[in-house]
C-alpha cells in the first residue's frame, strides 16, 4: 500500500500512521517528525479535511 505524500510530507489518519512512517523511513532513511494536526502547530497552513488513502479524517502530519 502506497501513501502519496507531497515532498516528504504525509497527512494520514490513525489507521495509516505506521504505513506513512515506514514509507518515510524507506525513502529518506531517517525517522520522521510526527505532529498531531489538532494541536495547532502551523498558523500559516490548514490541514486537509481528507486524504486519498481512506475516508477517515486525517490526524497526523508526518514530515
UniProtKB/TrEMBL annotation:
Pfam families: YyzF. InterPro entries: YyzF. This is Uncharacterized protein.
